[in-house]
Amino acid sequence: MVLASLLAAPVLARPAATLEDLRALAAQKSWAELLERAEELPPAARSDTWRTLVTEAATAAVESATAPDDKDPFAVARKAHALRQRYAFLAKAPGFSSARDARGLKDLERCLESKKSDCIDTYRELAADASTETTLQAARLVKRGHFAYVAMPLFAAAVRGGKEAGACKDEALAEAVLAALDLPTTDARAGDARKVGFEWCWSALGARLKTATVGASAYFLANTCVPMRARKALTELQDDLCKDAGL
Predict the structure, then answer these.
(1) pLDDT class for 234, splitting at 50, 70, 90?
(2) What's the superkingdom here (predicted)?
(3) Cα gap 195→163, rounded to integer Å
(4) Does residue 149 contact residue 183 with C-beta atoms inside 8 Å?
(5) Which residues, other chains included, contact 57 with Cβ-Cβ below 8 Å and sequence gap of 6+?
(6) Where are the domains of the chain?
(7) CA gap 216, 221 in Å, rounded
(8) Number of continuous H segments (helices) and E segments (strands) in the chain
């Protein structure tokens, strides 16, 4: 009878966390619990102090996360991405962004070492708003272990549609552009290279593109003749080469 009474007794709900509770959890460095309970505060009570506590917890959670023993090399980056989606204000928190970017690079390196096939696509999905310098570091990381054109999507992402002119001066980016222009025109990486070379970074790369046209392959000419002609950058001899190639 006693057991039946205990089982029938109502389970008392845990009181909602207060700002003082979150402060106490921060003092104890109980970051996971703080993030778990942060949204128990009603929206009207989510002050600047609340955002500071959440930011501190999210940053610490990413920095202290260890690589799990599973088949997902991007586990930490996924955690950071989920926190960024859950708390939009983290996008403007430099400390969190730095931690997220650093762990994203580590996860990319881990993925590349495991020789998985979707490392670049997964990284781009999870680190779409990483800083320009971080994206360049990721591109260089990929380039070191692959043909230069493999890193072309990340170099294109670093340029950000021509808004990051400084990235156009990166030597590794120039090498990736030239290599990708030697791919079939239908290859997406060749498309990225055309945008970077002829639309977004022409002032930085134009001279190298002109020089590379001399003795170029059929693929390179197919990717470059039309945009070079549009920019009036072909010499008479180069224009004849393009015409001989039907371009």
Answers:
(1) confident
(2) Bacteria
(3) 13
(4) yes
(5) 25, 26, 31, 34, 35, 38
(6) 17-130, 145-247
(7) 6
(8) 14, 0
From the list 76, 186, 166, the residue with the least C-alpha distance to 123 is 76
Quick one: tokens of 124? 């781009």
106-127 confidence digits (pLDDT tens): 999 999 988 888 999 999 999 9
Structural element, H or E, at residue 89? none
Can you read off the two tokens belonging to residue 242? 């393009």
How many residues in the chain? 247
Closest CA to 174 of 223, 217, 207: 207
Q: How many other CB atoms are there within 10 angstroms of residue 231's CB atom?
A: 13
Q: In the chain, which ranges are E strands?
A: none
- Tell me the pTM: 0.85
Token readout for 76 is 């930490």
